[in-house]
Amino acid sequence: AQSVAQPEDQVNVAEGNPLTVKCTYSVSGNPYLFWYVQYPNRGLQFLLKYITGDNLVKGSYGFEAEFNKSQTSFHLKKPSALVSDSALYFCAVLAHSGGGADGLTFGKGTHLIIQP
Amino acid sequence: EADIYQTPRYLVIGTGKKITLECSQTMGHDKMYWYQQDPGMELHLIHYSYGVNSTEKGDLSSESTVSRIRTEHFPLTLESARPSHTSQYLCASGWGRAGELFFGEGSRLTVL
User: Fold this and answer.
1) How many other β-carbons are positioned within 10 Å of the β-carbon of residue A28?
2) What DSSP string runs through A73-109?
3) How many CB atoms lie within 10 A of CB A58?
4) Which residues 46-75 of B are in CB contact (within 8 Å) with A?
5) Which whole number is the average pLDDT over A59-72?
6) What's the number of CA atoms in the CB half-sphere (13 Å) around residue A26?
7) Which residues of A touch B103 (CB under 8 A)?
8) Which residue of A51, A82, A96, B17 is 20 to 30 Å from B100, comparing CA positions?
9) Would you say residue A98 has pLDDT above 60?
10) CB B97 to CB A102 under 8 A?
11) Subunit contact B97:A34, Cβ cutoff 8 A
12) To the nearest whole number, what is the mean pLDDT of chain B?
């Protein structure tokens, strides 16, 4: 079974400060890892993914994430937060192989609030 | 912009009514998914399809049913809606195992 934990329901950051949204995962074997963002009353938008290779992945809107295999983490980061980054962020995981659906397993989401 | 569309965006109906939520994508993706999401909460996979005439139930048990008669179309049906079905339903499509999913805007269903 695969699972994702996002330990913080909400993260508050002042505009211009760096931000981190935490994600840890559990999966058999190697993982595919994803970050999505959801604005109010909208669907999810893809931000970035880790498949293999470089542990630091760069994505849309200046976001990046670092894959840490020993800590089974995939934290989302941005050097300088914008008020427009305020949204609900989801981490998701999928095992490279295995039975069952290959739909992503999502974390419960983290509300990111950027204060002006 | 992802080419995946859901209708209706919002639906308020009475208990016992039959409803169908439509989902269409123009990207030629074989894989399509339905997720259920309570407002501001996590997503739960309820149905998926790997292609025409392929449908499977997901991790979360659901009284809804789906069909996949055409590649681009993956409708979800509730034969008799109940208040417990009130939720947001998100449709997604994708390619391969490592490809990202593209999501529709969602259908928010309220059953009175």
Assistant:
1) 11
2) EEEEEESS--GGG-EEEEEEEEESS-SS--SPEE---
3) 10
4) 48, 56, 58-59
5) 95
6) 5
7) 36, 43-45
8) A82
9) no
10) yes
11) no
12) 92
